[in-house]
Amino acid sequence: MATVVVRGNRVFLENGDVVPATVLVKDGTIEEVRTGQACKAEVPDVPVIDCHDLLVMPGIVDSHVHVNEPGRTDWEGYETATKAAAAGGITTITDMPLNSIPSTTTMDAFNFKMEHAKNQCYVDVAFWGGVVPGNQFELKPMINAGIAGFKCFLIFSGVDEFPHVTEDDLHKAMKQLQGTDSVLLFHAEVDGTEPDVSSLDPIQYDTFLKSRPCSMENEAIKLVAKVCLQYKVPCHIVHLSSSEALPIIQEARAQGAPLTVETCHHYLSLAAETIPNGATQYKCCPPIREQSNQDKLWQAIKSGDIDMVVSDHSPCTANLKLLEQGDFMAAWGGISSLQFGLSLFWTNAQKHGFSLQDVHRLMCQQTAKLSGLTNRKGCIKEGMDADFVVWDPSGHLKIDKSMIEHKNKVTPYLGQTLQGVVHKTIVRGNVVFDKGVHSEKALGQFMFRNHQK
Hints:
The protein is of the alpha/beta class. Helices cover 25% and strands 22% of the residues. Strands 1, 2, 3, 4, 5, 14, 15, 16 and 17 form a nine-stranded mixed β-sheet that branches. An eight-stranded parallel β-sheet has the order 6-7-8-9-10-11-12-13. It is globular and about 70 Å long. It starts with a strand and ends in a 15-residue tail after the last strand.
């Protein structure tokens, strides 16, 4: 017997239709989806969440989030990050292996991180591990424990405790990942093609942009394509910024590389030409590039060359952004947007001819697939987790500091008016966010790759 019922006039079904429906939930799982005349039947003695004319969609899955706990909880933490996620209609996040201390590069560190996250999460959380020099024999134990997959850097990561890998390190890791169902994520930039900008003004955004040219990404992605083809281990490029790399990706896929690609809200909503000098809240790596580059990223999403869109929520304390000095070269690189990802994407996607079905594919299905959670997350159908975002795609919100749930309120989106307002977020049948109010208890659970319930 159902334990809760979610009902609405606009429910987003597995096939992409938006219809009146009643969803019966039992112990956190969707037991039945009733449409047509059947959805009007009463379900006696069961609590009903009536969403009326708001859109009921599968909860958003954000597969690229830096929570930074343990070790850097002044930057963020599980409570604040997952409250921000819940406020943004995100029902699952996948936490990156850095910038926590220790980084999640060993089984002990994985256990340590989960111990810290326990009883703090307002939405469900999966975890990425890390590939660093010399840890190749740590990978299989973490795979067996259900880690979502692994991330590596091909350039300095920004923190000493997560060193970047060489091509030789990649070969060692790939040999361990062959034959598993795991995936290796790449921060795809390499040194060697960047110009010397030391004589240029660090307050000018153009100085920073010149220091991280597209060629750094392009050369890195050539290496990713090479090892992906050699080992046929699933590989994934995080935060693609350079549209120049798209032909490299296309060619690798044509040759059979199991390669996926994401881009981020900031690359799709911000452009270098409009970034004020000294406005270091806009700094991230790879950098936000020109409008012409952004246009090509949108085209690549349309064509399927980019598979998904994520936040890459990478906060820090305000002092590390050096807002008073405005020094782009010295400031920490990372943009905070977790809470506003759905609204950011929807606001801009409509201008490029995208539909709600595209939002579902890019921010629910593909991100769940990358994280190994397609047996539980990403669509509304029998047997799946009862995760829903209840929102008004035509509503508007203006971002101000008072509404931001992230621990540090620095973001380039302050003052922006966005379209798409989240009213309610439901995780496994539990209302965790309702018109500005979070659930009294943290009801999130840990998610493990391809594990059965």
